Amino acid sequence: MIRCLRLFVAVFASAALLAPAEAARVGVMSNNYAAATAFDFASRIPGHAFSPIDVSGTVPSLQDLLTAYDVILLFEDSPTTNLFAGATVVGNTVASFAAAGRPVVIGSFYDQDRSDNRAFAPHGWGALEALDPNTTDGVGTSYAARTLNAATLVPHPLTAGVASLFASAGTGFAGGNEAKPGTTVVAWWTQPNAHGAPDPAIAFRTTGAACVIQVGIAPNYAVYGTLNAAYGGDFYRVWQNAFDFAAGKCRAPVIPGDPGQIARGWANRAELDLWRTAFPFAIILDDTFIQSGYGPALLLETAADGSITVR
Description:
Elements: H1 2-17, E1 25-30, H2 34-44, E2 49-54, H3 62-68, E3 71-74, H4 87-99, E4 104-107, E5 134-136, E6 146-147, E7 165-167, E8 177-179, E9 184-188, E10 200-207, E11 210-215, E12 231-233, H5 235-247, H6 260-264, H7 269-275, E13 281-285, E14 288-291, E15 294-302, E16 308-310
Parallel strand pairs: 1-2, 1-3, 3-4, 4-11, 13-15
Antiparallel strand pairs: 5-8, 6-7, 7-12, 9-10, 10-11, 13-14, 15-16
C-alpha cells in the first residue's frame, strides 16, 4: 500500500510541475525597451498577454496598475549607466502593487539602481527593496559570462523544463546578487558574485501578500544580441516559468499526499480536499473529523481568510 501511495504521489508531482498556468496580463515596466521586450516575449512565450509600460516620463497610478495587470515585470536600462532617476517613485508604486497580492517579476538591470550598489550612484527602489529577494553584491550586473549551474536546480515550477541558461562573455548582462535570509533560491549561477559568494540565478520571496520573483538576467537581451550567441539556453522557458508561477499567485501546485504541504498549509478548503485524497491518516479540521484513517489525527484549523494551517 505504501509503495502504491508513493507512486501515486510521484505521478501527481510530475504532472503538477507541467500543469498549464492561468493566463496573466503582464505589464512590462521599464524606463527603456519596454515595448521591444513586450513584443519579444509575446512572440515567444505563450499563454500570457504582454503590454509595455514606459515609465521614463510618468508612472501609472496604483489603481491603474491593479485594474490593467495581474503581474508586473520590472527592469531598467539606459545606453550608458543603466540607471534610472525615477527608480524610487516606481519602486514605491510597484511595492504597493505587490502588497495588494499581485506578483512582481524583476530582472537585470534592476540591481544597478538598488541602494546597496556601490559601483554607481544608485537612486534606490524605495519600498520595493524590503520585498525583493536579493541584495546586490555591491557591484550588480557582472558584465562577464554567466552560466547556470545545473547541479543546483531545485525541482520547482520556476525550474520546470530548465537545463541551461547563459549570458556570454561579450555582454554578460546577468548576476551580481546575494540572496536575503528567507529567500527561496531554486537555481544558482556557476560563477560567484563579486564577494566570492554564490550568486542566485532564480529566486523568489514572499512577504505577507507580496511575492517578488527575481531572475538574474536581462529580460531585454534580444535588444542587444542574438539568441544562443549573446544569451541562450532555456532563456525563454525561464521567463515563462516566472510568469506562470506569478499567474498562480506564487503557489506551487498542490500535490495530493505531499508531506511538505503540511508545513506550507492550504489556501482554502478546496486545496485541502485535493491534497487529502492521497493522505492515509485521520484529519480533524476545526474540531471536526473530516477524514478517518491511521492515527494520530492531523489537527488543522481555518483562519479568518479561509486558509488552513496546522493547529
